[in-house]
Each structure stands twice: as structure tokens, then as C-alpha cells.
Amino acid sequence: MSQGHRAAPNGRGRATQRTYLVRRVVVGAFVLALGWGAFSVLTSVFGSDDTHEVSAVEPTINTIIGDGNPTTLPATTLPATTTTEPPVKEVVVPSAADPAEVLILGDSDAGTFGPYLETLLDATGIVTTELDYKVSSGLSRPDFFDWPAHMREVVPQINPDIVIATFGGNDAQGLRNLDESWVVERVPSADDTEWREEYGRRVGDTMDYLSDGNRTLIWVGIPNDDNPEVTARMQVQDEVVRAEAAKRPKVVFVDTWKRFSGPNGGWAEYKVDPRDGVGKDVRADDGFHLNQNGAEILAIDIAEAVKTDLRARGAAI
After folding, report:
1. Pick from 113, 150, 152: which is nearest to 131 by CA?
2. How does the average pLDDT of the chain come out, rounded?
3. If we measure between CA atoms, which residue out of 182, 184, 206 comes closest to residue 196?
4. How far is it, in rounded angstroms, from Cα 238 to Cα 235?
5. 3 state DSSP class of 220
6. What is the signed CA dihedral for 269, 192, 199, 259, rounded to 10 degrees?
7. For tag attachment on the chain, is the N or C end more exposed, with fewer CB atoms within 10 Å?
8. What would the 3-class secondary structure string for 168-181 be?
9. pLDDT grade for 84, boundaries at 50, 70 and 90
């Protein structure tokens, strides 16, 4: 007797390969139909992602600052941002029990004078401070870092009584949009009306937002540079900022340019430290930024402006 295949139980013959394949197709189609039906039911109940629209509060790009070069990421990688307008700040007398909230924000200059300013303000016992700065940022290049959007996130969260802001060390250049297109391609110059108008609009919008809702805005100006050509561009920028501040009674302008100029109004490397009456080197090696001595001297000036505002609010200091 041959050793052929065993017979199937109950006398039923083994299915042919073709029959087996047909059964597989039929079963697969049945499973697929069940899965699609379940998906349709769930979609009708919970909705579908296919109709998702990017809301007004979702950013289209995100700029990451690390090595100084902007990196653009798609919006789908980012959480939704909060752009709620800040509530009106109730005016109260600052005290240890109810301290005034101070927000310091801006470019690398804020990061330079900010730490010592925090120390000076903390010593009053009636102030809490938050420092938020981005190196190489400003108002000219929102494609690199979008300060208007960022401010509309942090200001409602902190809800400060006083905002200290500084922008400008990186702004004496052409003005771009978020999408990197040019608004004004030329750098500022003495007769550049178009640049002045656009930069003035950006500064004015920023001042209006940061001083809204019973807030005091202390705007810290920029110093001059040891390069006359760079100083000429920055002077145009400084004039625009001063003009915008003069239109707004709730904006206090700190004149950094004058503070770090010499007797003839030009660039100065040494200034007298008011803490000890000694003349000290106040400039960093790049000829523009302030070194630690200069930053601390500037912080003293800013702290006095803050204390003046605290007294106007009724604080006993």
C-alpha cells in the first residue's frame, strides 16, 4: 500500500489550491468590509482629520535659535500657541505681600543687563522679575524670530505691571516679513523714509501692546558703535524709536546712547561707575555691546526708572 496522503475526516476530500485561494480572497474581502464599516461609524461620531484647518493661533513656522541660524519646522510639529490678549492689570500698591510683576524681554542686550537688574529689583522686596531674551533677534527679522507672536504668548501668562524691553542691536538692516520676503530691502540711512516708516510702525505696535492694560513700558535704547558707518545706521533707528516713545505717555525711554557717549557725544570706551566713582571700561570687544561693567551701570539706570514707577503706584521705597 502506498504511503499517500491521509483522507480528510468525514469523507471530505482535501481542498485544491485554487479553492483555497478563493476562500482566502473571500475571507479577506469580508474582513475588509467589516473594518471599513467600523471606521465609517467612528468617523461619523468623532469626525475626521481630513477636514482639519489650521486655526489663527497655530504658527505656520517656528524659528529655533541655537547656532545663530534659523531652522524652519512645519506647523504640524508644534503645539497650538496662546495668543489671548492680556487682561487689564489691576492697579495696586506694590508690597511684599502683593509684589509688582516685572517682565524683562528683548535681544542679547536684555540678557546682558537683565541678571544684575533682577538683583537690584529683588532687593526692593516688592518686585518679582522674569527675564526672557533671544540672542540675535529683533523687530527687523520676524522670519528669524517672531517677537510680536512670542510677546502675545508670554505677556498674558505673566501679566506684568511693568515691562522692560530692548530691541535694536540687530535691527539696522533691511526689513523682512515672516515668509522672508522683503518689506524694505535697504538698510536705514538718513534719507530712507520708507525704512523709517516701516520700522516706526513695528516699534509703535510693540509699544502699544506692551503698555496696554495699565502697564508701564520702560524701553531701553541702544548705544552707539565704534564703527562710524554702523553708528550712522543705528542713529536713524534710535531717532525712530525716540519719536515713537514720545507719542506715548506710558512709555519711559532710557537713553542708553547718551549714557555711553563721551563729552562730545561720540563713542566712549570708559565711563564713571556711579557705585564707586571710578572710570571703567564699559564696552565689549565688538565695540557695540556693553561688558559687565557697562551692563551693570545700565541696569542701575533702569532700576531707577522702575523705582520711580513703583513710587507713582504708591510704594514706600
Report:
1. 113
2. 80
3. 184
4. 5
5. strand
6. 20
7. N
8. CCCCCCCEECCCCC
9. low
CATH of residue 262's domain is 3.40.50.1110
pTM: 0.74
Specify whether 35 is located in the same domain as 109: no
Distance CA 280, CA 294 (A): 8
Q: Could you tell me which residues come within 8 angstroms of residue 134 by beta carbon, excluding any fewer than 6 positions away? A: 65, 107, 145, 147, 150
The answer as to whether 230 is a domain residue is yes
Are 112 and 204 in a shared domain?
yes
| Residue at grid coordinates 557695540 | 288
| Cα–chain center distance at 174 | 20
Q: Which three cell numbers stand for residue 125?
A: 522686596
Report the C-alpha gap between 158 and 130 in whole angstroms.
8
247-303: per-residue pLDDT in tens? 999 999 999 999 999 999 999 999 999 999 999 999 999 999 999 999 999 999 999
190 phi/psi in degrees, rounded to 5: -60, -30
| Res 66 pLDDT > 50 | no
Q: What is the DSSP annotation of 235-276?
A: HHHHHHHHHHHHT-TTEEEE-HHHHTB-TTSSB-SEEEETTT
Quote the domain boundaries for residue 17. 12-49
